[in-house]
Amino acid sequence: MNLLIGAVTIGLILSLLALGVYLSFRIFNFPDITAEGSITMGASIAAVLLVKGMNPLLATLVAFCGGMLAGATTGVLHTKFKIHGLLSGILVMTALYSVNLHIMGKSNVPLLTEKTLATYADNIGQKFAGAGPLNILGWEVGVNDASVLIASGVGIALIGGLLYFFFRTNLGTSMRATGDNQQMIRALGVNVENMIILGLALSNGLIALSGALLAQYQGFADVQMGIGMVVWGLASVIIGESLVGSTSLGLLITGTIMGSVSFRLLVAIALRWGLNPNDLKLITAVFVFVALVLPGFVRKLKRKPAAYA
Question: Among 83, 151, 198, 239, which residue has the least CB neighbours within 10 Å?
């Protein structure tokens, strides 16, 4: 049960990464791989500030701003210096590796003895449920695990709701229209370059926020923690789109969150079956391959009866 709760919690935290990837890849059609550097940047900023004694909430917000700066840099390279979007992301991601090392001062920063948002959630849970384990459907669950899970769920639901309402505003609608048809939105007087920069900043801000929360939950920040995270985010988006089967903004945001949790559960089950943890990236790649191929295969199967009619 603890394995299940841990998998769902990490899935919820990484859903912010998935939402960030959804913004760049789906709304703006921008192949942004800055995510691999910005998620580590969020974790490193939060970890260093927490070690220095800063309030966890404030440290997390600063990490969000750091991610926005990284995303905005990618946007500026693409729009102002006319560098290809993919190459812009590669340049910033590569630079962020050294930046993150300078921020942390070393390759790994432990947080096991620091006060984090997970600590706050645990303290609140103990006030309501006590220090003993909870009995849920016959399973013993630690108050700490349950508290962090509930806090993560509430936080992600709040952020998802804010994101939905933001994209219903005039600014948000302009950003979505920029990804759909740049020529049309430019003809309406909207500055497309500013929309791209703002969109990438918001995308990487969410990704850095995910990194900050993940570091506080796991109890450490590591310079290598961003490797393969773009693939993770893409897989979550693809799975989410398959789950909801709709183009509605609200359902797509919900589906992306569900896709992240589902993907983490699949990985946890695969590891539970005895697969080598060293094969985690291989397992991730296989799941992404299946998520990419399966929808098209299902569509072909549905069309076959009509072909013979």
Answer: 83
Once rounded to an integer, what is the mean pLDDT over residues 107-132?
90
Q: For the chain, what is the mean pLDDT?
A: 90
pLDDT number for residue 309: 44
20-38: per-residue pLDDT in tens? 999 999 999 999 999 999 9
pTM of the model: 0.92
User: Quick one: which of 243, 86, 258 has its CA closest to 160?
Assistant: 258
Three-state secondary structure of the chain: CHHHHHHHHHHHHHHHHHHHHHHHHHHCCCCCCCHHHHHHHHHHHHHHHHHCCCCHHHHHHHHHHHHHHHHHHHHHHHHCCCCCHHHHHHHHHHHHHHHHHHHHCCCEEECCCCCCHHHHHHHHHHHHHCCCCEEECCEEECHHHHHHHHHHHHHHHHHHHHHHHHCCCHHHHHHHHHHHCHHHHHHCCCCHHHHHHHHHHHHHHHHHHHHHHHHHHHCEEECCCCCCHHHHHHHHHHHHHHHHCCCCHHHHHHHHHHHHHHHHHHHHHHHHCCCCHHHHHHHHHHHHHHHHHHHHHHHHHHHHHHHHC
Please tell me whether residue 115 adopts helix, strand or coil conformation: coil
What is the pLDDT confidence band of residue 137, given thresholds at 50, 70 and 90? low
